[in-house]
Structures are given as C-alpha cells and as structure tokens.
Amino acid sequence: MNPLSVLPVAWLALMRHKMRAVLTTLGIMIGVASVIAMVAVGSGARMMIEAQVASLGANMLMIFPGSTNQSGLRGGMGSVSRFTEADGRAINDECPNVAACTPVVNYSGRAVYGNQNWPTRINGVYPNYTEIRDWPLSAGKLFTEQDVERATKVCLLGQTVVDNLFPDGGDPVGLYVRVRNIPFRILGVLERKGQSPFGADQDDTIIAPFTTVQHRLLNTTSVYIFMCSASSTDTIYKAQDEITALFRQRHRLQPDQDDDFTIRNQADLLKAQTESSGVMQMLLGAIASISLLVGGIGIMNIMLVSVTERTREIGIRMAIGARGRDILLQFLIEAVVLALAGGMVGIGIGVGATQLITYVLNWPTLLSPFSIVAAFGSAGITGICFGFFPATKAAKLNPIDALRYE
Amino acid sequence: MTAGSSIAQSPEPIIRVENLQKTYQMGEVAVHALRGISLNISRGEFVAIMGHSGSGKSTFMNLIGCLDRGNGGRYMLEGVDASTRNRDELAKLRNAKIGFVFQGFNLLSRTTALENVELPLVYAGVPRRERRRRAEEALKIVNLADRMDHRSNQLSGGQQQRVAIARALVVHPAIILADEPTGNLDSRTAVEIMGVFQQLNRQHHMTILVVTHEPDIAQYTRRIVHFHDGRISNDAIVSNPRDAAADLAAMPQLDEAVQSIAAAAP
C-alpha cells in the first residue's frame, strides 16, 4: 500500500476529534515553540556578548602585572607592579606584530563642573588609546603626544560623564572640569560605547594624557597595565609571544622563573564568555527538549486511546486484507501527522514569542533557521518514536477479536 | 464476474477441507471447537451453514475466511494450502480470494459507500482510477448506484449491508462468506438481502457461504450443512429453494412505504 494514500485517512481520523487532536499536540507545540524561542534568546545573548567583547577594542591585548615570588612566598596576580613607561615604549619599538601600545594608570575621583559633580575614573593614556580601543570621538579633538610629554591638563569625557555633569545639554568642549581641584580643559567627547562584557559602563570614564594622571593626580612612577592592539586578528598570539619574550628579557627572568606579568587577549575573553553562554544555551535547549518529550508522551497516550477506540475498524481493515504493516503505517503516519501539525503551529508560536521577547522585554534575540528546522525535525522524530508503540499494538491485534470488539 | 465460466472444467473445488480441527486452550481446559471437519464446496454453490451457538460454525467460518488457522487437518482454498500460511500471507489470501459480509455490516463510519467499497482494492494496490471503476461497478450490481456518495451512517441497514456485499464483490473473490448477514435486519430487508445473494449466485455464478441460525433464511440457499458439537451432523441439498424475489412481491407494500419514510428521515 502506498504510504501517501494513508495521509488523507490519517487526517480524517484526526479531524474526527479536533479538540482532542489540538490538546494532544499542545505539548509538541509548546516544545517546538520553546526550543525555537530559547535558542533565539541564547543566540541573542551570545551575539550581544560577542559585540561587547568586540567593543573592548580591535584585537586588543591587556598586560597585567603578575605574581611575585620572594624567597618562595608567592604573591597573587598584581601583587606588585614592576611595569614602567619604558616597557611600553619598548613594546612599540620592538614588537613588529603590535600595532599600538599604551600604558594605563587610573585615578578614581570626583569630577566637578559648576554645581554638578560625578564620581568617575580618570584613565591616563597615550593618544593611541582611542585607536586601540577602537573608540572614535563624537565631538572635539584628541590630545597629542606633546600633551603627554608636557603633562598638559586636558581631557576627553565619556558620554556618561557628559550626561551627569551637563544635564541640561550643551557642548562641553572648551569648558573645564575639576578633579582634585585641578582644572582640566575638555578637548572632546568620546562616542557612546555601552556595556563591557563584565557589565561595567564603559562610558563612565574620563581620559587624559598619561603623564598628567600619573604625576598630577596619582603622584607615582609606576604603570598599572598596558593595553596593546595586535596588527591583525591572526597575529594576536604572535604579538602575545613577542611581548612575553620582550618582558622576560627586560625583567631579567631566568628560564626557570615564572612570568611576572599576565597577558589577556580578546579571543580568550570571548571564549570564556561564550563558554558560559553556551552552557546556558544548552541548558535552555535541554529544558525545551523535555517539553518535546512530554509532548511525545501525550501523543503516545492519545494514540493508544485511538487504537482501542478503533479496534473494530482495525478488524475490518484486516479482514479485507490489510497486513500488519499496513495498519502499523496507518497509525504511525497518524502520529507523525499529529506531531508535525503541532510542530508547524509551534514554529509560529516560537517565532511570535521571540518577537515578543525582543520588543516587550527588550532582550536581544537571534532566530536561527537551523533551530527551526531542528525543532520541526525533532517533532517528527518524536511522533515516530512515540507513535511506534501504539501502532505496533494495533498491528498485532488478532483480526477475529478486533472484529468482535464492542 | 467471471467465476461461473469454469464450473464444468474445474475439478478442484473452491474449498476443500480435510479433517480440519481447532482446539482452544482455556487455561487448563482444552476446548475442541472443531473435531475433524471434511467438506468440499464447488464453484457456483450457495451453501448455508447452520447450527446452535457453540456448534463450531463460527470457528469454521474464521478458518475458511483465513482469519485464523486450525491445529489439525488441511484447508485448500482454490488449490492453495491456507493451513500453512503466516499472518501476512493470510492477509493477502483474504484480500484476493475472500469477500466478507458481517452481521453488523462493519463499514467504516463517516466514509462514503464508494470509499468503503474501494478499500480492499487499496490494500491490493489497485490504481485509483481502476479502483473507482470497479467500486462503481460493484455498487451497480447491488443496486446502489444512486447512493455511492452517501456516508455509511446516512444509509439504512439494508443499504449498508448492500454496500458490504459490494465491498465483498469488488475484489472478484473466490467465495463470499456471510456471517449472519440478516441478523441485524427486519424480516423484509432480510429477504431483500437474500435476494441479492440469490441474484449474485444465479446471474454472476458467485460461490456463497452463509452462516445462519434461522431456518427460513437457509431455505433461500441451495445446500444446507448442519454443525453439531464440532462435527458435521447433516449435509443436504435444498430440493426446492425459496425465491426471494417472489416472496418480496407477496409481502405487504405498507412495510416498504414505512421503510422508505424511515430511510428518508434525517
């Protein structure tokens, strides 16, 4: 018998109990819908994390002071800072795969303008910082190398600082903010960048020439960290190796000594972040699959009822020549039709729910065609798996008993 | 129906049963439903099987209909040994060689007469167009050409039984097996249905086996086999079968008027 010829039979059998069919497929609908929506939310979160990591800068490397080891007493990471500005100059001069490098110091303090004040962090950097962080200006201009040499009292404001110090709007360029009672002339404003992967507001910052912050605000000679950018995505690890070799040499480390610095790159960050979001996504997917499973059990249940109800019909079909496998096929196809119909509605609900999440909850989502196809396919497979037992039961009926069944 | 043309040439009977036995095991007790039945039915015969309940006639019917297998003896259906076939092969035999008519009609509900009649051909793998042609032909033979698209629940009992007969006919079976075909019908419709069988037997040379417990109904056949306690107790030719058409003509017409009103009512 042609399997296609069973399709209308299966459809009619299902249409005979419309309400029952709808309730039965509810599980599959919810399962498919939740798989699609969950994967969309997971992918959206992943996409956002990737964007946030990318917002740190272009191919960025960060060099932190490392652990110390004094007579076997080990300090943790950052226990001592042995970085000097000369280290930074050396990176710029001697590492061919490093496009730019800036030392960074920062001072946490209060910026004051008129009767407004705002606690923030003032980063002392070279002008190439904006290039490393891939951070253009929205107004004004950058400070220069000369400003760094002369420790000029100038600065650039992040958007959050502008919003808080100049709540009435207006162009802050050319005005002065005071930090520790030192007036800084505002040269320009940085474009809005948003959240960092660690959840911090990247726009809540002021940047000023490195030496200005180092000498005028902190009164120190040390460098907190270095920020560099590799010449391209492919050379990140090469640049990292060059810096490692250079620093070990400059810090006169013996081959048996540990590095006294740590280099973090963006790729590692991305990996760490996406790993956690991947676990989350798998978890969501697993929960969604459970509802598919529950939906399958619903189908099995109702198919068993259907087989019992239609025992006589099965008997008639067998009497006039249906073989066991014809009956099996009929009920299996009915289960699959049920599951796929539920899957189809589920796709609609899933896509709708994803839109709702995007526009009502404002969560980033990403609908993937793969997840839709996979969810629909799983619905079909669920139909086959859970339809098989009832269908086998029908196929194994004894025609004589089936015909007599009341 | 081409079955009739070979009556003379064919020495092999349609049904040849030799010492057929069937025992059901009910826990510790063995129930002997058939204790050795031997019976031949030739092409073109119209046979009634009679007996009380428990006489073994239903078991015999199930075995003849290839719905079940005996545990002793032999059953040859048109020269094919049906006693050694497996489930699927029996299904194929039923499909190709046997037309069933049941007491409870056993049509698929909410399905049109035409679709019901087509069903055996679906399992036989007959193409759609051919299926339709043959189903229409079979419905014409039972005088239901004007009710083809009616669903089975829109038909009267007599009409449903005619559809069932058409469904039995449509595969051009070797034999039609009717199990109490008039049991659910009023007396007039019962005679009508027996008239259909007589017409099939006379005009189309169909071989028909009817199981009944009503002596009146058996009188429309041409041979009566009595079953008693799992054995054949009597096997006799009906010397002067009743004619359904003549009996119907003699019946009061009022009955028919009432029936047609009942059938037309929604």
Give the N-terminus to C-terminus distance of chain B in angstroms: 36 Å
Determine the structural class of chain B based on helices, strands and strand pairing.
alpha/beta
Q: In the CATH hierarchy, what is the class of chain B?
A: Alpha Beta
What's the β-strand tally of chain A?
Answer: 12
Mean pLDDT metric of chain A: 86
Here the CATH topology of chain B equals Rossmann fold
Largest interface: A-B, 22 and 25 residues
Mean pLDDT of chain B: 88
Keywords, separated by commas or semicolons:
heterodimer, A: 406 residues, alpha+beta, six-stranded mixed barrel, 12 strands, 56% helix, B: alpha/beta, Rossmann fold, 9 helices, disordered N terminus
Q: What this model shows, in words?
A:
The complex is a heterodimer of chains A (406) and B (266). With 406 residues, chain A is of the alpha+beta class. Chain A folds into 2 domains: 3-52 and 271-404, no CATH class; 81-259, no CATH class. Chain A has helices spanning 3-15, 18-55, 85-94, 129-132, 145-150, 159-165, 210-218, 236-250, 266-309, 311-319, 324-361, 369-395, 399-404; strands spanning 60-65, 69-70, 73-74, 98-113, 116-125, 137-140, 154-157, 176-179, 182-190, 206-209, 225-230, 261-265. In chain A, the strands form 2 sheets. A 6-stranded mixed barrel of chain A has the order 4-5-10-7-9-8. Chain A has a two-stranded antiparallel ribbon with strand order 2-3. In chain A, a hairpin with a 2-residue loop joins strand 2 and strand 3. In chain B, the strands form 2 sheets. Chain B has a 6-stranded mixed beta sheet with strand order 6-7-8-3-9-10. A 4-stranded antiparallel beta sheet of chain B has the order 2-1-4-5, with helices on one face. In chain B, helix 6 (187-203) links the parallel strand 7 and strand 8 (208-211). Chain B is globular. Residues 1-9 of chain B have low confidence and may be disordered.
